[in-house]
Batch of 3 targets.
Target 1
Amino acid sequence: MNPMNPMKLFKIKTAIEAFKANHPKFPLFLSAVSNNALQSGTVIEINVTDVNGKTYSSNLKLTDSDIELIKDMKDTFQN
């Protein structure tokens, strides 16, 4: 595994801040889900509709290892 590049982390952090500014309600939604719904067995469903109206859908059921990964990512990127 490669060591984390501090400049790349800074670039990602800057991009996350821009995303939050562009979509202010989405981080609030993620926070509510994170605080109330992330547990083993929770189902996450994602629907994406492209500009032509085609919809792509998928879902997954969270496992204990998924929850651990999410916690690790939160610890890495939290302010």
Target 2
Amino acid sequence: MKNEFNDFTIIPSIRQLKDLDDFLQTSLPIVLLSEVHIGNLGVLAKKCKKHNKKVFVNVDLIGGFSSDKMGIKLLKTLYNVDGVMSSNIMVLSMCKSVGLFTIQRFFLMDSRAFDSSLKSLKSSQADAIELLPSPLAPKFLDRIMENKKLPILAGGFVEDLDSVEMFKKLGFSGVTTSCKEVWLKQ
């Protein structure tokens, strides 16, 4: 899975399930199923797997899901999820222990939130980091890279191809975006 970020990767965040079929026709390797609940996750993941796509979810946003040890195991074994996103390092640690790819989300709200994220990064075993919102991400890229060498994604408000190109040139490993116009043109 770590090879997914050897090249710059665009990860579509599917918020409207009607957009999933359009995503499945692209060559993009990973999807973030953003608006899922425990009742439809299995069917959606299976559909993605039929198209050889890797399935990621934000464990903090799955409706009807409990991120306890049993719930995490079910993500891997029953729902066939490949990776997760969360800002909770305890949840990410549990996900990592069952073999899921983990992305730690950093919300750049203020200097205190950033300092707290940096502190948690030292004990985190996440496979990658997502910086949100993307307009602030370039300012913090170097400081994150000084602390840990991991793939770094920009997320939130990635709304045009010019932004995608800028993140690519700055050295980000990829972006997450719910903007269909961005990921459809890849």
Target 3
Amino acid sequence: MISESYTMSYLNYVILLCLLSGILILVIDVRSFEIAGLNKERKVSKFLGWFSIIIGSILMMSEIIFQ
């Protein structure tokens, strides 16, 4: 019998994906755009990388607080 408090959550995977994708965008994309001299694309990649890291951090903090 499954108890009523059993829930299946994929939030941990989403947090991990947000953090890893943000780090990879900042490390790989921003550097390659900087070398190629594509300033507009570099700025957008920086924004998306930091945005992803911030969203992952907010989700991680909310998971810790509400657990």
